Amino acid sequence: MTQPRNQTQSPPMPMGPRGGPRIPGEVQRARNVRGTLLRLWSYLGRQRWGLTLTCLAVVASTLLDLLGTWLLGRAIDAYILRKDVPGLARLSALLLGVYVGSSVLTWAQAFVMAGVAQRTVRDIRQDLFERMQVLPLRFFDQRAHGELMSRLTNDVENINLVLTESLTQVISSTLTGVGVVIVMLAINPVLGVVTLAIMTALSLGINRGIASRVREGFRRQQATLGRLNGIIQETISGQKVVKAYHREADKIAEFSVANTEYRHAATRAQIFAGFMGPMMNFVGNTSLAVIAGFGGWLALRGAATPGTIASFLNYARQFQRPLNSLANLYNQIQAAIAGAERVFEVIDEEPEVDSPGAAPLGRIRGEVVFEDVCFSYDGKTPVLKHINLRAAPGQTIALVGPTGAGKTTIVNLLARFYEVDSGRITLDGRDIRDIRKDDLRRQLGVVLQDTYLFAGTVMDNIRYGRLDATDEEVIAAAKLAEADQFIHRLPDGYHTMLTERGSNLSHGQRQLLAIARAVLADPSILILDEATSSVDTRTERHIQRAMLRLMEGRTSFVIAHRLSTIRDADQILVVNHGEIVERGTHEELMAMEGFYYKLYSRQFTLGIPAGAQEEESLAS
Question: pTM for this one?
Answer without folding.
Answer: 0.68
